[in-house]
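Re: (2R)-2,3-dihydroxypropyl phosphate structure - here you go.
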Amino acid sequence: MNFKKAPKHSILALAILATWIKTYITYQTAFDMKIENTMQQLILFINPLSFLLFIYGLSLFFKTAKARNRYIIITNIILAIVLYANVAVYRFFDDFITLPMLFQTSNFGDLGNSALSSMYFTDVFYFTDVILLILAVKFLPAAKEIFVVKPKMRRTYFVLSCAMLFLNLGLAETERPQLLTRSFDREILVKNIGTYNYHLYDIYIQSKSHAQRALADGSELTEVTNYVKSNPAKADDKMFGIAKDRNVIVISLESTQDFVINNEMNGQEITPFLNSLTKDKDTFYFDNFYHQTGLGKTSDAEFIVENSLFGTGRGAVFFTNSGNTYNSMAERLNGEGYYTSVLHSNNKSFWNRDMMYHAFDIKKFYDIDSFDVNDENSVNWGLKDIPFMEQSVDIMKTMPQPFYTRMLSLTNHYPFTSDEEDQFIEPYTSGDGTVNRYFQTVRYTDEAIKKLFADLKEKGLYDNSIIVMYGDHYGISENHNKAMEQYLGKEITPFETAKLQQVPFFVHIPNSGVGKVMHEVSGQMDIRPTLLHLLGVDTSNDLQLGADLFSKDHEDFVTFRDGRFVTDKLVYAGEVCYDNKTGEKTDQAKCEPFIERANKKLELSDQIINGDLLRFYDEKTGALKSNSEETK
Ligand code: GP9
Ligand code: MN
């Protein structure tokens, strides 16, 4: 090869090419990323490119060859270190680096040491591009040539690199709609936008919440405490402590909407077991109960249950504010001598659960590693609900008692696929496969709950427990209105859409004999106060926005994350005020006072979370902490 003929920008091209290929090889060898189809493979392949084109391209602004080369090499070294640091951390934590991780090493034991112990000599591979570049700069004569970069050429170059970014984002969006707004988990982000872009995104998200937190101070809490204290919901004497010291099992019913309860589809019962509970003497079934989640969906529901606060309006609070101080239900129950945990057969980093559970002070996360998951017992998103319930009860047997554990079911998740042997009813008969299959997977989850109850009885855990179940969010989105109209036999107006946000809520207290159907208009935010009171835990100092459902003070009023609301008389949706009984439009003035109150609630919740205000609050005394006492 004649080096003299090397083109002008060979160092730039080499840097891009070498880093790109090395990054792609690293994806394939160092990270365990599940690639499901050729499109995902293609996205993975091209995803480092947009960032590399951009960052190395900045060298075109330097005037001399020396400066250009120096910039390229320094950038290359930094990128090699970033990638390698991810590799080392991944070996240990099965996760990519996040900004808070670097600052909160105490959360992770000794991050540095553990990363160090997972470094090998062969890791020089991660620096081959650096070596190659240094050699090229030394030996390629063209590398030393001085030439001026024409502005036009620079412009074309950056237009191209932008186009690359949009191509990447476009493809990623078709593979994973709402990728950047919902965040999902780090693996999905890296798979779709690449490690380097992921770090930029992470820095953006983290610094935004950091800035809001830095600007907040304890005085903002006064408004919140005043609000909460002026809306007390005193516990009912008969219900307070009725389940004291019992184990608590809270089940998130994936995508389960209330319309399936006590309903039929083509003559087939959809949820026979849950239906039987609605008539059971030990069960409270709430038939006017709504989800209050936003983009964080399952994780938002978890957040609401633990804190009786809303998730954030944009993005998922599990990602945006996992470094906050919370006064979660788990933390309260830790204080009552409970052993607290979550059972969910998925990666611990999925939805950033590992970080958020730490913030909630949940003592143990039984993640995918605690379950036996194989091809036979999984479908769709992972372990099927029946084996999940079976294995969970086995795990519960090993927990110190009393325990508080939350179980996240999974089978009834979009796209609602199931194996033939798990289909206990025929699919629905519309032109919409999603809706058709939904009934079958709901029916399957119902069977899983039945199995759970049987297993708890068999393993001697039933009598001394309380079992709480809630639907986490809608399963059938508005995109499926046509098939839903066919099923429900009515037109779906914004009023109906709001009513379809009803999810089932059950509180089952074995051998209590106090159960009945409750019609209180309520929502997920009410779970924390209700449950803690049933366990005999006082919450009068807790900053929660929900209220005990058994309290006489509980108001028939539920606010959705997007500002819609429902009361016993009104439904406010699509900025229109409806009569709750008739579904007809009614006088807007009737809704006005509630609109204001709904917005106030959302605003207070956002204020608490964005400002990380609970760090200024002493929940034992209900007093404001002075700044020096404030916990991080
Ligand atoms: C899986 C669960 C499902 O771990 O969080 O996510 P969803 O899409 O329902 O929020
Ligand atoms: Mn869900």
